């Protein structure tokens, strides 16, 4: 279903569809051999490993567009192409309690949500991401407004709808046209 079809649904139908999509996504994500969370600028992955595992027992490779986590001499727990580019020098990993590999990835593009970690894994609907309010509320008013605008614009772009700036231009043009009905805008090219 594309954005136009979704917009035609009633609020109840949207809620029902969103619930079904969220349940499917949760099931798909639960089947992965890791869990992950993200903010606009970073992504954190938790990979369970057998209790007693030490860093020297692991092979962890973090590259600009690839990630691999494996126990030495075994099939990789996860391996593949990352959804988007990362900043390798700012990305890290460590082992916690000898049973969890914690991976922190710094996104190259800090204004974009990831649909998945590895390209061959199930995707999530990034238009439905609700960032933690506590983090937004920690920002000063101007910065918070800018972040909220970026999130709105990113969501609008992903749905093929106009951004806030484009909406403002369209509204200004409508007001101008209403104020000047004598002008013919039928052949005008608006950029």
TrEMBL record:
Which positions are tagged coiled coil?
Answer: none
Could you give a single Gene Ontology term from the biological process aspect? protein folding
Ranges for the region named Disordered are 1-27
Instruction: Give the matching SUPFAM superfamilies.
Output: HSP20-like chaperones
GO MF terms held by the record: unfolded protein binding
Name the predominant localization. cytoplasm
Subcellular locations according to the entry: Cytoplasm
Q: Which UniProt keywords apply?
A: Cytoplasm
Question: Which InterPro entries does the record match to this protein?
Answer: CS_dom (IPR007052), HSP20-like_chaperone (IPR008978), NudC_fam (IPR037898)
Q: Which superkingdom does the taxonomy of this entry point to?
A: Eukaryota
Question: PROSITE patterns, alphabetically?
Answer: CS (PS51203)
Q: Name one GO cellular component term.
A: cytoplasm
- Residue intervals passing through the bilayer: none
Q: Where is the CS domain?
A: 29-118
Q: Name one Pfam family in it.
A: CS
Described purpose of this protein according to its UniProt entry = Required for nuclear movement. May interact between microtubules and nuclei and/or may be involved in the generation of force used to move nuclei during interphase.
What's the protein here called?
Nuclear movement protein nudC
